[in-house]
Design brief:
This protein is of the alpha/beta class and 230 residues long. Helices cover 49% and strands 12% of the residues. It has a 7-stranded mixed sheet, with helices on both faces. It is globular, with a radius of gyration of 17 Å.
Length: 230
Amino acid sequence: MTSQIRGSEAGGAAGAKNSPLARAFIGIGGIIGAGKTTLATALGEHLGLDVHYEPVADNEYLADFYRETKRYSFPMQIYLLNRRFQQHQEIIWRGRGGVQDRTIYEDAIFARTLRDMELMDPRDYDTYVNLFRNLSNFMCRPNVIIYLDVTPETSMQRIKQRDRGIESGITADYLTRLHDNYEEFLHEISKLIPVLRVHWDEFGEVERLAKALTREYKRGSFLREVAHMT
């Protein structure tokens, strides 16, 4: 099964060839409804990078997962882990960088949240974590992760606005737990991969974000917060 990719034209956006991010592997992270797909598309176009989208339309488990979460939580997470590993490796093997709509590292946040809510058996969770650790031995890390920080309230509002029927059962408690677990994740992952936290309750301008990203990337910062992109 191939990744969902929207390729950029050769040369990309104006000035992209000379950008230090011209061949960068950029991950876009955040809870449900943060705006990852929209930003990934715009950033890919701006920097001339391929965009690798989160599997939604062709996700064979998504409808079942939302209908019977406890029954399908483990196969859903394994399915996503497999697809994201495929995307991750494809970005590396192509050797021309790319923007990934949610990274493989974030899947563990969802698995943990499901376990904590007793929607995934602890034994299944342990199996998932061990599989991820084995896969991680074969992975090169992204150059940077952009974390779109939105409140659970904003997330819920955007989920309602986009009106995907299968998402109607998402609860405020689930989003709050995800948001809290993301905070712990950011503390840990920023020790390994530079993370740029961007407040995204109000959508920002892609060009300004790209400039801020380039600036922080040159600095080699490992956890930076960008409230005002200048």
